[in-house]
Amino acid sequence: MPSDQILDIFIGYDAREDEAYRVCRRSLIRRSDSPLHIQPLKIGPLQHSGLFRRTWHEVEGQRIDDLDGKPFSTDFSFTRFLVPALKQYSGWAMFVDCDFAFMADVAEIFAAADDSKAVMVCQQLHQPKEAVKMDGMLQSTYKRKNWSSLILWNCGHPTNKLLTVDAVNREPGSWLHGFGWLKDDEIGDLDARWNWIEGVTQGDPKAVHYTKGGPWFPEYQHVPYAGVWNRELALANHYEGID
What we know:
alpha/beta, Spore Coat Polysaccharide Biosynthesis Protein SpsA, Chain A, 6-stranded mixed sheet, 3-stranded antiparallel sheet, 11 strands
């Protein structure tokens, strides 16, 4: 991939975690020597355009998907799987949850792109013990837990054409997050340090994933690498003129 090629990145966006989004974005920009095209994956425009049609209801503040009856937690729980369609099934693009802070140049991820793979993810085993997530939502368990939190999409791969807009809107969440449309050998492996999870990932992080709770919540100010996140927030606020 040419060093001057613009790298397409979609960040999951939820208005309840706007600070997390801004930190993720700033950390990507600050450490990249390549031009980046970063887009927040916002649910409103996707609904308005008819690309996202899933509905849900709430039970005591917990969102429940009307299709499969399972809980989910963020606006981008399902919309991440629209990235190949948004890219018109062409080229490479990365999706990442907003609760990441990058500590290395994301161009390294794109440099690992393997044309034989439909997606590339960090294939580590994550079986959280917590029953509740940091935002009070229920913790779901499923095959390939957290693999979908950072995805390098080969949008033009033939098998990804099975991931139609209709499929994203009708298939159960476990099928989507488990990459059910792909064969095992179509899923490539990235260095796990790009999805560094406390208590799971070995080595120094290239990107920290605050799965157990991030410093945008007052009660999570002392998690590992909270200082990294807070410094990135200060920089984001400085460059955006926020006091």
